[in-house]
Design a protein that fits this description.
By secondary structure, this protein is α+β, with helices and mostly antiparallel strands. Helix content is 34%, strand content 24%.
């Protein structure tokens, strides 16, 4: 089965540095096939017969911690799930080239409670938008993600789950790469 792993917080501000060639090799040594990395933020497409995403997540997190000496949270999605995420964008059809940095998807470690999903809406201010569907949060930040308060840390604090975000352009590219 084809999976996409999305690592949180590597190669940001000079911390938790992992070269993509080294990461690819680590995945291959872990028994994964057809390993492809995409950009320096820790996106890895791979194949495995393992069907349990929690087992995969734990295996990858432990391998990274053993090799690098620090913990990196990992989110796992199948290429079918990424396709569904793209199809179900609440902001309509978004061109990844034209608006690919205004829309992002935050991959959540689990589905947040309905109460927390309701409560977080009190903290969202125009022009930003936030729509949570299952284990994904769709963000619309027309002034840029960096200028929005909808950071991973904010979402984690308000929703009580871990999170990592990729822009719409990257989400599309990850899906494209998963088809190869």
């Amino acid at each position: 089965m084809k999976y996409i792993s999305i690592l949180r917080g590597i190669n940001v501000g000079g911390f938790k540095k992992i070269k993509m060639d080294d990461l690819r090799a680590l995945y291959e040594l872990s028994g994964f096939g057809k390993v492809v990395t995409y950009i320096q933020s820790g996106n890895v497409i791979f194949e495995t017969e393992i069907k349990n995403k929690n087992v995969l997540k734990g295996k990858i997190e432990r391998a990274i911690e053993r090799k690098y000496g620090f913990f990196v949270p990992v989110e796992i999605r199948t290429n079918r799930e990424i396709k569904s995420i793209i199809k179900n964008c609440p902001f309509g059809s978004i061109d990844p080239v034209e608006e690919g940095t205004k829309v992002s998807v935050t991959f959540l470690s689990s589905k947040p409670s309905e109460v927390k999903v309701f409560e977080i809406q009190k903290h969202i201010f125009t022009p930003d938008k936030l729509v949570i569907k299952g284990e994904e949060a769709y963000l619309y930040c027309p002034n840029g993600y960096g200028k929005s308060k909808l950071s991973n840390a904010f979402l984690e604090k308000k929703l009580g789950v871990s999170a990592t975000t990729r822009n719409w352009k990257s989400v599309h590219k990850l899906y494209e790469l998963s088809l190869q």
